[in-house]
């Protein structure tokens, strides 16, 4: 006689977060592919070394390439589209990471108080990371 495992309810909060993790991972891959393509379009591959090119395409900040031979980098990267793009990418990546950390740590924590404190701490870290990221993006 075999006992079949109970299926998780599809409408639960954990299932929603599980789905978010999968979809945000896919979205981050698409963000990365778009950044790579735009780095090629803007000519970074011929005018930067590999570390500079990677930094330029995944965080399009004009200050990252200010000492390069690329003419007028601020016109290409400091417009509102790239600032919003960077903020969305950082928000999605940090939410994805904080949710992953939460899931791993909750596997090891058994006390409800510890889980509640952990969730508050991770939420606070996520908000702090977003504030710092938005400041860096808008200040550059």
Assign the structural class, choosing from mainly alpha, mainly beta, alpha/beta, alpha+beta, or little secondary structure. mainly alpha
CATH topology value: 3 helical TM bundles of succinate and fumarate reductases
The sequence of SSEs as H and E is HHHHHH
Give the overall average pLDDT.
Answer: 79
CATH architecture label name: Up-down Bundle
Structural features:
3 helical TM bundles of succinate and fumarate reductases; mainly alpha; 74% helix; 140 residues
What does this structure look like?
The protein is mostly helical. The protein has one domain: Up-down Bundle (3 helical TM bundles of succinate and fumarate reductases). Helix content is 74%, strand content 0%. It is built from 6 helices and no strands. It has helices at 13-41, 44-47, 50-58, 73-77, 80-108, 112-139. Helix 1 packs across helix 3. The longest helix has 29 residues, at 13-41. The radius of gyration is 20 Å and the shape is elongated. The mean pLDDT is 79.
């Amino acid at each position: 006689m075999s006992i079949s495992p109970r299926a998780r309810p599809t409408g639960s909060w954990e299932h929603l977060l599980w789905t978010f993790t999968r979809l945000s991972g896919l979205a981050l891959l698409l963000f990365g592919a778009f950044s790579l393509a735009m780095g090629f379009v803007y000519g970074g591959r011929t005018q930067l070394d590999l570390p500079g090119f990677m930094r330029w395409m995944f965080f399009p900040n004009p200050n990252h390439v200010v000492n390069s031979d690329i003419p007028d980098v601020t016109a290409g990267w400091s417009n509102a589209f790239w600032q919003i793009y960077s903020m969305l990418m950082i928000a999605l990546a940090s939410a994805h990471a904080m949710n992953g950390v939460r899931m791993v740590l909750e596997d090891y924590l058994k006390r409800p108080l510890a889980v509640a404190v952990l969730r508050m701490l991770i939420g606070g870290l996520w908000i702090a990371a977003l504030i710092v990221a938005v400041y860096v993006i808008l200040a550059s």
